Amino acid sequence: MTKQLTIALTKGRIEEGTVELLERAGFDMSFMADKGRNLIFESPDKRFRFLLVKAPDVTTYVRHGVADIGVVGKDVLIEHPTGYLEMLDLNFGLCKFSVASTNAYDPTDHKRKRIATKYPILAKDFFNQKGEDVEIISIQGSVEIAPVIGLADAIVDIVETGNTLKANGLEVFEDICRISARMIVNKASLKNKPELLPFIKKIEGLVGDREVAFK
Fold it and tell me: Which residues form the ATP phosphoribosyltransferase catalytic domain (predicted)?
């Protein structure tokens, strides 16, 4: 008897990209069309169950085995790096981590900088690798105003189009890394659910090994 696979993902681009990918794989995803306020969806054939959760919680659900599979941005995995297996780069949801600030910022100045970010682990690692000692200021809301009001010298944040930065008088000084949607799996599920590996292989055949560049 085929065991049901539970997939945790977030609303928005990740959900839309995942649904599109599964449709390309030949699965009927029409049951996801009219979601309303529901957070749990089950395919008519009982093959899949989808959980719509907050991005950081995707790793939690997979880590604890509530979900067999998670689809989430690499940005979340960098800040929550343990308790799951990262299997595939799905090559959608493309953006990048960048260092941005006002035009007064000098990235070559090696004085101790204050960096505002929602991603303290990535930001600290990036500057440490450059041999720079920085003070990380953790902000949960919009970080764009931090350099403008003098709270920080620069920010580390996700950049997609750059329009929000420009609207707040900021510009990109350094790109850190590419971000895309990734598939993660629960370690026990990979052993105990024989349906999981063929599913992963099928998706891998669609996304391939090629890394799509973000420009």
Answer: 54-204
Phi-psi bin for 83: left (phi > 0), alpha (psi -120 to 50), beta?
A: left
Total domains in the chain come to 2
Better-scored residue on pLDDT, 34 or 125: 125
Residue 212 belongs to a domain: no
Q: Which residue has the tokens 């799951």?
A: 84
Whether residue 185 sits in one domain with residue 85: yes
Range of the domain at 90: 5-94+179-207
- Residue 213 located in a structural domain: no
Task: Give 53: exposed, middle or buried? Use CB within 10 Å, 0-12, 13-18, 19+.
Answer: buried
Q: How confident is the model at residue 133 (pLDDT cuts 50, 70, 90)?
A: confident
Whether residue 183 is found in the same domain as residue 173: no
Structure confidence at residue 110 (pLDDT)? 80
| DSSP string across 13-55 | HHHHHHHHHHHHTT---GGGS--TT--EEE-TTSSEEEEE--H
Choice among 32-41, 53-62, 140-149, 176-185 with the minimum mean pLDDT: 32-41
DSSP state of 209: S
